[in-house]
Design brief:
Number of domains: 1
Radius of gyration: 21 Å
CATH architecture: Orthogonal Bundle
Number of helices: 14
Shape: globular
Helix content: over 70%
Strand order of the largest sheet: 1-2
Order of helices and strands: HHHHHEHHHHEHHHHH
Number of strands: 2
Length: about 325
Amino acid sequence: MEFIGGLILFLVGFATLASIASISTLGLNICWGVTGLFNIGIAGFYAVGAYTSAILTAEPSVPSNPHLGGFELPIPIGWAGAMLASAAIAWVVGKICLRLRADYLAIATIGIAEIIRITFRNWGGLAGGSYGIHRIPRPFEEWGQPWAEIFFLLLVVAVVVVIYLVIERGINSPWGRMMRAIRENELAAAAAGKDVERMRLQAFVYGSALMGLAGALSAHYLKQFLPEDTEPLTATFLIWVMLIAGGSGNNKGAILGAFVVWGLWTMSEFLTDLLSAEWATRAAYIRVFLIGFLLQVVLQFFARGIIPEKPPVIRREEKAEAAKPG
């Protein structure tokens, strides 16, 4: 029974972290899969969301771990603040960087993300510096194990479902078709009278807000947030692999990719723990190799991802409206 209980807790924890990762993947899908924005700054917005929610909801700091905040506000306010802070920074970044294209935009966003990460790491009075922020409250924690874990998972799943339904409705609306038109040919979209710059900024802000929410959920689940949690390997590279492997432009693929890649990442940790001490220091590189190998296999057999993008659904009333004479 003890083994079964431990296995259940492990599976619940795995599903929780994979669901949180899928929120970041859905946010990236808005940026890249739908609009074609090469956003490599995921770790920065993830960190902004996590630290914002932690500052708003955590207990007051102690001398050994000073940080801004300790306002002990309700957790939903922390999550809303995380999304607003990430969206606000994304708006500023977007105003500056979205005129760049392709690889230039990628360089700009990853540079800004690193500035954000390094600021949080070194500014001790803001977010605890290298010690991070601890004593972050978690919903349902007073219910005890395993119910606290299970109900937090259900809450995260509910959030994912709501986000999925909202994005699906947006993608299959005229807004989504406009975003795809911008992705495929910006000049043609602009010639058709679309405000390309404004629409690109919208997608960038929406996607970044979801990345911030994912950071906030992660901080509350772990009850602490450290600078190591924003390493580009896990907070940016893995999210990109999840989206590409699952199917860029398809929300179902984004969620499936998050679970598949996080499953491999988790299992690779078990495998590397079995290695000898001589190989233990190389374990991180072996895990990266496995993820890269998975991506190559997926792209060889599924060039557009496991669940490729499908054409948008055009509702009957929209067809009738389009068929009306000039």
